[in-house]
## 1
Amino acid sequence: MGLGSPDDSAVYRLNDEQAIISTTDFFPPVVDDPYAFGAIAAANALSDVYAMGGTPTLAINLVAFPDGLDLTILSEILRGGAEKVREAGAVIAGGHTVTDKEPKYGLSVTGIVHPDRIITKGGIQHGDVLVLTKRLGTGVITTALKRGQAEASHIEKAIAYMSRLNKDAAQLAIYYGAHAMTDITGYSLLGHAHEMAHLSQVDLVLDYGALLWIDGAHHYAQQDIFPGGMWRNHDYFGQWVHFDAAINQHSRYLMFDPQTSGGLLIAVSPAIAEEFVTALIAGGDEAAIIGSAIAGHGNITIKP
């Protein structure tokens, strides 16, 4: 799997029993605390392996750091990343650093998966139920932080969600026979949902009332505190989205909010959906059924 069928990671078959997953992701700080930033960036990069149904094995640090900035900041970033990789059961096996005007951090991650058990974006079946495993709203909350308008409690909760690995959720998705899966990141819930719908040749019907939001997300949206990525997502992916007239404009924009280290969007059979969500919640994920798939060609309808 590569550019011919775009997905969360590249996959290279070694033999009938093993395939290598390869992915990378890095970005500038989204929070002020260096340790938390490192943990969030690592969790975000690892998610692409989980989204393919794989297991991370090793990671390479990718670092950009300014001359003259206190090196204890870099040490804390790397410590946060290393501890999150260790939590995933993988190892940091090296890295590369360049000088830059702004700090940036992330990982190149290698994982493994059985070639017959890869979970792709494009496997949704008609009638499938869609499950989301994390709350939404990290984009507006971290933007409020950058503008000095965020409440500490909202930032604390956003950090907890962004730092949480998708490891357990992915393992349960495999156990329950998920048909398709992706992680929700910069393209927003609607952008990544469209990718899945388009590749699966289905339409999606999403229930706005079923979505779970991090405390503060609606508050900042009502103040028009949105990251620039929201507008790019809205302008591009909006052509495939139809909102019920009852959904107000701020709520519509929130669904295009770019996420950092978001949850997994998983398509499963309706016969096991409730049991699957119960298992996710028991494992610590704030999961919810948010919609379903019908025949179509990549369009998304949002009902109140």
Note: The chain has two domains: 10-117, 129-303.
## 2
Amino acid sequence: MAGLCGGLPKPLLPVCGRSLLGRELDALAAAGVRELLVTAEHRAEEVAAAARSAAPAGLRVEVEVLEATEGIADSLARLAPRLPGPFLLWLGDIAAGAPDLAALAAPVERGEAGAALAVAREPDPARRGRNFAVFTEADGRVTRVAEKSAEPGTEWKGTGLYAFAPGILFACAGTEPSPLRGERELTDAIGRFLGRGARAVAVPATRWDVNVTAPEDLREAALRALDDLGRDSWIGPGAEVHPGARLRRAVVEAGARVEAPVEVRDSVLLPGASVRETVTDRIVESCGAGA
């Protein structure tokens, strides 16, 4: 993903004209969230500026720059003084369709659980293994979680959205780097939290979700967002589309160009892309290069 859009941090990548971060801000504001703490490390000044400019009215945004973090659990442990009560956590590289944040937050707000994990059913073990597996009882109580695991026994995957009571922060502080990636994994912290007797529940809170880790993931997110809009194509401000071109389930982001009477189908043209030939099932960044 480092090359897309000039190496932008993933939260700033566009999805139908709105960055991943902007889409999260919109959903949070719509759910009644009024205070947001954005953390940034890579190109932090850009992320901070984008967060403040993209924030909907009524949403107060603060930015915390974290340097040399060792994973999500490490980041949360560092932020403990700023998180005195229950909070939502939304990872910045996650696109989600119509997340029900109120349903996710409710068990923690009511004191029924110390953690609520947004989950989605994923029968494909390979795709489930790209996120983390969530094992539950019949009533939705989480018994354990497993990072990057395709092991059998569950079809639930985590989707990068959480509600937590502050107790999770103590579990994060005591979490050691994992052998998997050398990071202090949030899943390990959740496991420690459960081991201390905390209750966690799984909540199917999203219509769809995409963990944006590869160019193809960004294409999937954009096309799912396009479907949510109920449109066959989306053309961003300043984009140029030849009058003879045919767009079929296509996203042409701002500044992209379709310069010939060709078909663009099931594809996304990112800012700066320029095509003169038929494009199918691709994401295109610039000069006709695709990924």
Note: The chain has two domains: 4-215, 231-284.
## 3
Amino acid sequence: MTPRALSADETLSEMARVLRVEAAALSQMAGELGEAQLRAVEILEAMRGRVIVSGVGKSGHIGNKIAATFASTGTPAQFVHATEASHGDLGMVTPQDVCLVISNSGETSELADIVTYSRRFGIPLIAITRKAESTLGAQADVVLQLPDAPEACGIGMAPTTSTTATLAMGDALAVALMARRGFEREDFKVFHPGGKLGAQLMLVDALMHVGEALPLVAPETPMAEALLTMTAKGFGLAGLVEQGRLVGIITDGDLRRNMEGLMSRSAGEVATRGPKVIRTGSLASEALHEMNSRKISALFVLDSADRVAGLLHIHDCLRAGLG
């Protein structure tokens, strides 16, 4: 291996060439979608078990990611290394499953046992390979053929274009299944409860204050009593309710605007009518955006019948990692 002194421009040019080669392969693959890809999606959609993804080497690494993508988007999946399958892990594969086997050449010898097992027990076999006429392709129920495109590396041998194309095909299958099943953001949240992503998909229902914690008063409540409620509940505001429905809100701003004769008034005389609210089932991130854009610190949460279900404070969102 002889090091080469590449200039900054030459280095960036080489990186750009790689991206163009791989992008061209993806574009070619998109243009060649057809009956095979549709059949693969239909098989996966009808599956009662899991997608068993298998491969070795770089295909195995890509297969791991494809299995993870399926699992996180509502399609049960598991990666089974082909070599481990030959040493007992075939017991993980059931007749309710679908095997998705990856091999660029279609001649990877380590795949023989899992392919044979799928044929023996009538388990649907989907192959991702560049050569449809290969041993793997000939055994498969459906062949998802990769484009006959050059590898992007300088010597044309390291798996680059082929692994990118394989990964993209896995993504295409997973996203197509999402669309057919009506998989939504709220469903995604179920599989991603932790980390920043989990926080971004958290619902207001999980953060809002409810029941006795809510600062609620009736329109006829004297302001002296309303002030006690605002102080005791600690949110710096009170909701004006009639028959369980929010009709107004009292904030510090309303108190300042009504200082003269404040104690002689009722809550209904001081409150601002028609306050901004948010619905149960809404994303907490949407509530935070609303509070930031309106420069307010809290939102009442209403249910589908317009009854007060809770109160969300901006501090609740920040503590949950939404800031």
Note: Residues 268 and 307 are 18 Å apart (CA to CA).
## 4
Amino acid sequence: MNPYQQKKRWKYSLLTFAVIIASGSLLYTSYLVRNIARSERTRAEVWAMSMKQILSSDDNDFLNYTIAVRDSSLVPAIVTDLKGDIQFTRGLDPGKTHIKLEAEGNKNKKYDLPYFESELAYMKSQHAPIRLKVMGNNLEWLVYYKDSDLLTQLKFFPYIQLSVIAIFLLLAYTAFSSSRKSEQNQVWVGLAKETAHQLGTPISSLMAWIELMKERFSENDSLIVEMENDVKRLEIVADRFSKIGSTPKLEEHKVYEVVKDFVDYFRVRVSKNIGFELTGNPHLVAGLNVPLFDWVLENLLKNAVNAIEGKGQIHVDISGNKIKKQVFIDVSDTGKGIPRSKFDTVFQPGYTTRKRGWGLGLSLTKRMIENYHNGQIFVKDSEVGKGTTFRIVLKNVRYDKQTKSR
């Protein structure tokens, strides 16, 4: 299992564990809410029965007892007749009254009908009414009630709790990821610069040996020329590593010429079963750091070569958009293709389909294009079994026939 797959499996495991905790919390809270809701309905029924006994009893002691039972209930309730007229209330705003006290000579309190009607409508939406037959008066009342403040708070509590936990975990994950990426970048920069330093000595020795070979043999010998090209290539690689961690200097170059130089270098070092084709506009000029941009092309072309099994074709096309001042570099191959679900995944560090791969090539390519060249790179199109096209987008491009040579 490669590091990316292992990292992905850990993420899924932690997510599953978090879902289990959240589900357990919600289920247990739901269980408590159901129990309290049943308890409150029972209390509402007890209060309704107490009111019934109050209306049908002449025993003062029993009347006092039932009033006490009524007052001990914390469940807000409203009693209406079958016509919907309010008869009694319980547990509502004590500053309001459903009795028209003006008729009794008390004009300090007003009858707030809209308040009680809105409360009654809310109670009707929450629970079915309790029917209450009043003995002796041949009446039937409807008792409506709503959840107490405690039950309402308990219903919303798990969502508030989970939201707070989610925000905390998100902030913690963001801080941890930022710290981890910073550490990884420091390690990567240190390793890159140390590698460049270590390569310096053997490259200098190889250059000296090649000069000696030129003196003893023909200077134009094809083997010596190719060896010299490879040593120069090693110099470029060392220069690339030395630039990691610093802001590279971008210079204007014709994109077509830079790409053509590298393709010509690369094509003679891969199998002859793979053909190369370069097309496009030769007059597009963009700011490039050539050693780093060559590294980008190298990673894309190597990726294309590895994707081709047997014979195949690699096509590089360069086009531009004058209005947006952009240049598009499309690298297409006739390889095995990439599933659509993996279009973003291929740029993740550690992702690879090769047994011996490190999964860093496309990740570094994305970093060099986005961080150093202020551009974009993405999978433009791919179909399993037919091939893939990667697109590089560079900005601030102009059209000019006169520019710096490589």
Note: The chain has a mean pLDDT of 78.
